Target: DUF418 domain-containing protein
Amino acid sequence: MLTPLQGAEGIQGGKGGESSRITEVDILRGFALFGISIVNTVGISKMPTVDAEPGAAYWAYETLLHQRFFPIFSFLFGLSFGLFLDSVRDRVNSPRFVMLARLGFLVPFGALHRILQPDEVLLSYAVIGIAVLLPASFLPMRWVAVLGGGGTLLGVALGGGSLIIPGIFLVGLSVQRYGFGALANARVSRMLSAWATVLSLALALDVWQIGAGVGSRTPLAAAAGMMTAAAYVVGIMLLVRTRGVGRLGGLAAVGRMALTGYVGATVLILATGHFINLGEAPRYGVAFSLGACVFAAELAFSVVWLRWARYGPLEWLWRCLTWWRIVPIRKSSGA
Model:
């Protein structure tokens, strides 16, 4: 899976409330990386998801993890596309050309990563971003929202997976255009009501999916995945509002280094695969534990690295390629 990778770098310090909104986006991105690390552990290790009859562990994986975090990343990619475009609009004459370069240089990252992880989505994100998000940036907000909603529903009807990417990219962009801050700063009572609603729908769809006995790549599973992802997003935003950003700062650090964490997790999973063979039978406890440990390593590295650096290693390289110059990476360096 990937990353919504359009990081928040260079956006802080903008218009009022921008910095806090970016922190919440990074927290959501870091939370999504947690789930993706576990899901990718199952996929990369080629662990069979079911042996005989599907059990509780299988359905926990299918209803709580599989295809539940990918929609969040796709949504954040579209949202962050708009944030990045706005951040450079006043600094360059051709902001869309800079965005084209940014997405274009994501292609080699994805192509190289696909050698290690055939199911990775960086390459797909880059190509679809160029084909869908860039043209959509010329459209009125209303049309972006309509096309995003229609495209997402079509993708769900066709079974989900990568088919939801174009639509949910546009949904993320439309949310950014209408104002993500308005959602993030909504009253706690309204957020509680929204969370209760989407959580109830998610539970109903997940129970329906279990009762129907259908796995991924079906409209029902795709709908359940989208609603569960929405419940996760609203729940995390509510937690940020009630518990404070400080307690979730680690997730924000991972979110700021999503590209590094995503690619690094693949390397860690492949390396540990030589010692832990998950390809013979479903061993969900081992797979979940390994994925959690991989994410813990991502989190620890991100927190330590960002004490002195402004960007993650791959984020820095990506930024240098985008601007075609060496960008200072140390916090003590000039911007």
Notes: Residues 18-44 form the longest helix (27 residues).
